[in-house]
Protein 1
Amino acid sequence: MTASLLAGAATLGAAGVAHPAPAAAPARRPGRPHGRPDTPTVVLIHGAFADASSWSGVVERLQRHGHRVLAPALPLRGLASDAAYIRSVLDSVTGPIVLVGHSYGGAVISQAAVDAPQVRALVYIAAFVPEVGESALQLTGKFPGSTLGQATVTQYYPLAGGGQGEELVIEKDLFRKQFAAGVPVRTAQVMAAGQRPITLAALKEPATAAAWKKIPSWYLVATEDRNIPPAAERWMAERARAHTVSVRAPHAVSVSDPGPVTDLILRASRSVRSGH
């Protein structure tokens, strides 16, 4: 349930009668961080088969550290269009940004952050870090170990100009083992029910830009990842010269282990604040 829904529910009494909402807080200037003036805004980009709620544990921790946090919903329709949408989010933020991507979201932030001067750090969480011309699907197959192909099914959706497009979802019975091993069963079941499909075209679309070549980066390797082989994650992190940590966790590491994920983001934030 999103924060907005929770907030709405909180205004209802036990009998379902609406109570007066508290007085609105004074309006803040758009994009202004809540903490110190030099505290970066953290923008969290989810990947395929997930949604923004997958960052909930990380968001809570970052907010306790005084960070303003944005976690927009990613369309998952195509790399160029997804990156353009996230760029519009970045352009709405005042001040420095730490931009974080999980899984396919890593490819998106690598493209969206190009020539975005407010983005001072990139953080990849079990994510793709493509070179120009590389696709997520290509990088998945670069090293053995991914079982995603056996766990997904294809769905079809209508295209605006006619015809059908293909999108992938993880079979619900396989979701926890494939994506969220170690996450409590009930939590994984909720995640499986609400998973966001990604188009096959998005996974095949090659990157046209690579912001990690100019922006400092951090990388978290999930050593129990079944979507992206951990060997591929290490290889991409090394190629990007990222500050790298490893966590024994599944692909959904932001859900299973939000503490280490938050710690890495805070490291990147401290680096931005210190000017390094």
Protein 2
Amino acid sequence: MSSGSYYVPATSRWPVLGSLALGVMMLGTGLQLVYSKGMFIMLVGLVGVIAVMTLWFRDVVSESRRGLYDEQMDRSFRWGMAWFIFSEVMFFAAFFGALFYVRMFAVPWLGGEGAKGVSALLWPEFVPQWPLLNPPDSSVIGPRDVFSPWQLPLVNTLILVSSSITLTVAHEALKENYRRTCRNWLAVTVLLGICFIIIQGVEYFEAFTHYGITLEAGIFGGTFFILTGFHGLHVIIGTLILAVMLARVYKGHFKREEHFGFEAACWYWHFVDVVWVGLFIFVYVL
């Protein structure tokens, strides 16, 4: 394709189908959280989202392999991925903001501190502290205890930080056309992602059975599962993406100078790692 051309993809049904599938999944999720009756709808939507993503990316890979994309399309992909990651930054910023608001303002106000300390009249016996093990409303049962950050959370932190290093090695190897080195280090990265997911599953089991940390366990339980749960979902997605990249490397896809699909996966994974470092500090340590 000449450098002055611009590839315009054919009319695609995937954006509409993807939006519908995502809407069904969110509807089911809302029904499940509020009424505990939306699991089937949520799973149908999830299957739809996965199917649309698989078929849509299949088309993109096929177009790329046929040489239909030029420098302008490459810039479009880069801007698109950059804006996507920015939207993810804002997504997590909202949840971190909720955590900071509760810790720095709402809890002290309920204890009689600050500009709205009059709120202490609602529950005069409330003792402000974080983690909030004893919510002010006696009808809400808080967690029995909280995790030590220096056990499973620290292990997961070391795993994710290490995975960023191994992924960087794989990326640099691809840029130097050392494909076997790239495959090996990328496989290690995928394995580390799987280890993180397993360990977080163990941590959630411990949270439910031994610590009494649930979504209903006051504001601590809510913020804990919202932040770590959405991050865990991102790790699962990132691990799947890297697994696809590994399969493509084995098939001989990507060139040392043309591999934005691989690079975009690296961007996403490094972003997920940075978010976890923030979670480890502000959810587990402080």
Protein 3
Amino acid sequence: MAGMTWTIAPEPYDSPAAADLWRAYYTEVSDRWYLLHEGRRTDPDELEREIAAHPGGELAPPTGRLLVGRYAGTPAGSAGVRLLDADTAELTRVFVREEARGRGGAALLIAAAEETARGLGARRIVLDTRGDLVEARALYARLGYTETGPHNDAPYAEHWFRKDLVRAEPLSGPRTS
């Protein structure tokens, strides 16, 4: 539809919109894992425990940010950034609701997250993902991320990616002495 656009802005990790997106994200990736490995959806009690155990405080300023993407004004996606050290940020919680997919939101969220990471002083950004999240892996590769060795030992991490964020310096002309 004409006029349908994305807007992306920082949002408190515990805002109602952020909490709703976190629940949708976690439900989707958890159900996908359990369906693949155990032929069932996530147990509702387990889902509630895990959501409560990972509220997102690491995405709060001054060393983290959560970005929420709104499509046509409705919260439809998220991306989180947190500093791991002075030069390295981690990209996390990249998610777009199913009904908003295919409209460019994921790439916009990641670009905004990269700019946020630069603003936090990071020179590189890293992430991990699972093997069954093939769409995510293809997206990261398309956006210039390269697969690398592990940067963490997260229990479900199977693929690690990295992208340098340093802006290219302008070429200088010939030197004369």
Protein 4
Amino acid sequence: MPSPAERVAAALEAVPRTGFLPPGQRAHAERDEPLSIGHGQTNSQPTTVRQTLELLAVSPGDRVLDVGSGSGWTTALLAHLTGPTGEVTGVERVPALVTFGAANLAPLGMPWARVERSLPGTLGWPARAPYDRILVSAQAAQLPAELVDQLAASGVLVIPVAGRMLRVRADDDGPAVEEHGWYRFVPLVADPPVESGGAQPV
């Protein structure tokens, strides 16, 4: 059976970064650096994507949550790793990027993957929980209990927290946390809850 690293390498070959970048950035797709996708967000450095996906160790058939899906690239990579027996939900807070990511994903013919707009005041996508794997592509100030609570038994969350990449496994005695190096990401932000009678942010 292929190792997680071999499976991730195959996914990166099968789902090129180029198709998930704005036209003006596509010539730079081979650069090993973050690239702007607008709205203050980036398409992550390929080395970072590879490392986080290896830590996540997705298996065929897994139910996966992709928080901060941005251009949809990680959502597509995760869908390749789960295969059609799995399910991948990408969640993004910027409406224009929800549209962009969904449009990038559509031509790949992966109906088991989709991109949703995040709900005000909510991290993740509790409606489809629990998840076998959760990937977060934005930095939190501290480990969000709300995302840990969306893990299945023995599920794994990979998330940058205060500059460190954490691999969190849901155990019976509570989350088991490992640290895996220093990283820089855009901040993890949840839209505030909608006030009663107020308008939902757009």
